[in-house]
Design goal:
Rossmann fold; 2 domains; 15 helices; 7 strands; 408 residues; alpha/beta; seven-stranded mixed beta sheet; Hypothetical protein af1432; binds fe (ii) ion
């Protein structure tokens, strides 16, 4: 048994001695696309449509340009007064049509142009990837079968990229191509359409997905704002270093070790950044105080978990993280805060997160303590567990996990 003299109390807010460990974190044409009235019929694109497109192009002052490689064309339907894009305000959505067959592309471009979208074209998968990063389309209409990089590869690439993952992808497949549809779902496709296009169906799906994308972006921006706040809080404390980043990595690894679901692992990782976001509501006089907190100050400090919960509560995507934020200072024997939960009353992810939070605090150097070795830290945590502070079984798993990591 490693003997470690430590007054560590199982809380990253409490301190061994000296200064307070301030772990601060941390809208188509006046609804033209959906003119479902009697003048519109569910019509499949035919040669008549293409002729219609030609005349429409003249009427609407459309234009198109081709780049040096011949694989980028930009078509844009300038709206007549009666064709203002509805529900998307003045921001005309951009749709990228990817197909190696020019005739197929023209069909889609004609229909989307008539609906008032700005349309960009690419004749290959690689040209599409390039255009996506350059033009940031609001939706991609993607052919499955293309030489070299096929539609599946393109979709997978875009959905794995943080910058492009929110762009909806509609796969163009043959009517009964079940295998392609299944593969499409696996690589992240948002919807499927079959050729020949049904005009109303195309318009409805594109409109719906573009709207959804914009809602997702708004949400994404709100999430990013919270993460920025958390990072700003962390940066106020030069002593904790990259505590949040380490917690994110450790949370992912331990979550995978425990066989947690993808969403649980994501929540654990987000918890790494957001668990102490409520410290933004704690006065500096308490948060940054050097020396022991008075009982009153300690009560103020403990409020950070409730403040953090309140900050994140309006966002549905934060539902899984909130238990971590609120309960990461509970103890197995009921002596923690804010609710004095006991045993399995404590949300599992909060228990898991607490393990990595304490371990990281122990193995990091702070002004008031040295960095304990991994073995020392585990020994301290086992002592705490024997005092009743942590879940015995989880502690056992965590020790095994750390030893596995250290021996790999
Ligand atoms: Fe905390």
């Amino acid at each position: 048994m490693v003997q470690s003299k430590c007054n560590y109390t199982g809380s990253t807010e409490e301190k061994v001695s000296g200064s307070n460990p301030t772990t601060l974190y941390n809208s188509v044409c006046k609804n033209h696309a959906l003119r479902t009235q009697s003048e519109r019929h569910s019509e499949q694109l035919s040669n008549n449509d293409l002729k219609l497109k030609e005349s429409y192009n003249k009427d609407c002052n459309n234009y198109a340009s081709v780049n040096d490689n011949g694989d980028l064309l930009v078509s844009r339907s300038l709206q007549g007064k009666e064709k203002s894009l509805n529900n998307f305000e003045n921001d005309v959505p951009k749709v990228l049509v990817v197909d190696d067959h020019p005739a197929s592309r023209m069909t889609a471009v004609a229909l989307l142009g008539m609906e008032g979208y700005e349309v960009i074209e690419a004749e290959s998968g690689s040209a599409a990837v390039h255009l996506v990063s350059e033009k940031q389309p609001d939706l991609i209409l993607l052919d499955v079968m293309m030489p070299e990089m096929d539609g599946f590869e393109v979709c997978q690439l875009l959905k794995q990229d943080e910058q492009t993952r929110l762009i909806p992808v509609i796969f163009i497949t043959a009517l009964n191509d079940r295998r392609s549809r299944i593969h499409g779902i696996e690589v992240g496709a948002d919807d499927f359409l079959s050729k020949p296009f049904d005009r109303l169906e195309l318009a409805a799906r594109v409109k719906s997905l573009v709207r959804q994308k914009r809602l997702n972006e708004d949400l994404d921006h709100a999430e990013r704002a919270l993460f920025s706040i958390a990072r700003a809080i962390e940066s106020r404390d030069p002593n904790t270093g990259d505590h949040c980043e380490r917690l994110v990595k450790l949370g992912k690894a331990f979550g995978e070790y425990l066989g947690l679901s993808r969403n649980q692992i994501r929540d654990l990782m987000w918890g790494g950044y957001l668990h102490d976001i409520g410290k933004i509501g704690i006065p500096d006089s308490v948060l940054l105080k050097r020396g022991k907190l008075s009982p009153q100050e300690w009560e103020v400090m403990k409020r950070h978990v409730l403040i953090g919960e309140k900050i994140c509560q309006p966002l549905r995507s934060m539902r899984g993280v909130i238990p971590i934020i609120r309960s990461h200072h509970e103890r197995w024997d009921g002596s923690g805060y804010p609710d004095g939960l006991k045993g399995d009353q404590i949300p599992l992810l909060a228990q898991v997160f607490q393990m990595i939070d304490i371990y990281d605090a122990l193995t990091s150097e702070r002004p008031y303590k040295k960095a304990f070795t991994s073995t020392e830290a585990l020994s301290i945590m086992i002592d705490e567990t024997n005092k009743g502070w942590h879940n015995q079984e989880l502690m056992h798993q965590f020790a095994k996990f750390i030893n596995t990591v250290n021996n790999s």
